[in-house]
Design goal:
This protein has 14 helices and eleven strands. By secondary structure, the protein is an alpha+beta fold. The strands form two sheets. The protein has a six-stranded antiparallel sheet. The chain has a five-stranded antiparallel sheet with strand order 2-1-5-4-3, with helices on both faces. The N terminus is likely disordered.
């Protein structure tokens, strides 16, 4: 039994029109002095009943005429003289008073009981909602936008006009804006104001106190609004302009924290003084932190798998390059051997001697290329050597000249000194 039910009950006796008797308990419930209590039932209804209750009473009057003062019990809201509302339990039964059939009404303050039932219903509703969102989070795939899902869910839970969702970077030193809910019609103005799209905007966290507050996963009112919400990276002037333009009255913030690790934050931009439901928001954000951790782990796993696939492709290319290099080297060897044999049978004055010399020089460069390909395929050890760029460029002159037409003039300029790399 709650405290209000331990208090003395109120008693009213009436004949349908006039109040015949009323005790101090009724006057205390109504918030008036006993001598000021209405003397008629119509006055009682007008003074202490809201519109919905009045409608129920007027609906009951025809039934009362058919069965005067039948026993009945019900609960109604009572509007006290000070404007406060209480829930009252009424038990009506017929009695004979001074030779008249009257109604005896016992009144009991049930406010705490009714509020407890309301809290139980809200708790059951919230529990059902959290269960549904937990299932939805589990079913989200990497292709789904988890940040938009979280933002839209938080908007429905909190009644916020706008919701911002951020994700922490891998070093947990910055927050990256991932979703803006409810700002579609203002997005162009916001982009013009800050000079870019807010999605993907990164906010380093310079103040460790703010970071530690977010890590706790506790919903809190942000006193400085948008300015503090962006970790003071948007100026006071621009912050006030944004708040005024969007009709923001106050800002709440909470972190998606899991075992001391901050995975992201959300900010609820409210257009009224009504605070969001703190326990429900905090429970939802704890669920969201688990979902974000799983989402991030899967994303890292996919990135590692992509790197592994790329590495295997490169390994395949390396094996292919090695095979091609071996075959190419065999062809170059045959060309080089035949050119060498031909050179031994020619005098230096022979017109074919320079041609065969260029062939041997080309096969030498081809052999160097095959060694590089074999090194790329990890089938040969790398052997870095000093290269003179002057010699390398000059040696290509005789090979390039025959490939050019007569209408092309070829000029070669080399360094005056050594050009070693």
């Amino acid at each position: 039994m709650d405290r209000s039910e331990q208090q003395p009950a109120g008693v009213i006796i009436h004949d349908g029109k006039s109040v015949i008797y009323v005790n101090d308990g009724v006057a205390a419930m109504a918030g008036v002095k006993l001598e000021d209590f209405p003397k008629t039932m119509e006055g009682v209804v007008e003074a202490f009943a809201d519109d919905a209750t009045k409608a129920k009473i007027f609906e009951y009057i025809p039934k009362r005429k058919a069965a005067p003062f039948a026993s009945i019990s019900y609960e109604i809201p009572l509007r006290r003289a000070d404007g406060d509302e209480r829930w009252i339990g009424l038990n009506v039964s017929p009695i004979t008073y001074d030779g008249r059939v009257c109604a005896l009404v016992h009144l009991q303050d049930l406010t705490e009981r009714v509020e407890a039932r309301q809290r139980e219903r809200e708790y059951a509703r919230d529990l059902e909602y959290l269960s549904e969102t937990a299932i939805s989070m589990v079913e989200l795939s990497q292709e789904d936008d988890i940040f938009t899902f979280l933002g839209e869910s938080l908007q429905g839970l909190s009644g916020a006009k706008y919701v911002i969702v951020t994700e922490s970077d891998h070093e947990y030193t910055s927050l990256i804006c991932r979703a803006l809910i409810g700002v579609d019609e203002h997005i162009t103005a916001i982009e013009k104001l800050i000079g870019r799209s807010p999605i993907g905007m990164e906010f380093p966290i310079p103040d460790t106190d703010l970071f530690e507050i977010a890590q706790r996963g506790t919903l809190r009112l942000i006193p400085e609004g948008v300015h503090e919400m962006t970790y003071r990276h948007i100026s006071h002037e621009h912050s006030k302009f944004i708040e005024k333009s969007l009709g923001i009255h106050c800002v709440y913030g909470i972190g998606f924290a899991r075992k001391g690790t901050l995975l992201g934050t959300t900010n609820l931009l409210m257009d009224s003084d009504r605070p969001p439901p703190k326990p429900l928001i905090e429970a939802f954000c704890r669920q969201a932190a688990v979902a974000l951790l799983r989402h991030r782990s899967e994303r890292i796993r996919e990135e590692l798998e992509a790197q592994l696939r790329q590495s295997r492709r490169l390994e395949s290319v390396g094996r292919l390059a090695g095979g091609v290099a071996h075959e190419f080297n065999n062809l170059l060897t045959a060309i080089d051997v035949n050119a060498s044999v031909a050179l031994t049978s020619l005098d230096r004055e022979d017109e074919l001697h320079p041609v065969l010399t260029d062939i041997k020089r080309a096969t030498s460069r081809g052999s160097a290329l095959t060694r590089q390909m074999l090194a790329f395929s990890r089938k040969q050890r790398l052997e870095p050597k000093t290269l003179d760029l002057n010699d390398a460029v000059t040696s290509m002159r005789s090979m390039l000249m025959p490939l050019m037409g007569e209408h092309i003039e070829f000029e070669l300029e080399t360094c005056s000194g050594e050009a070693l790399i």
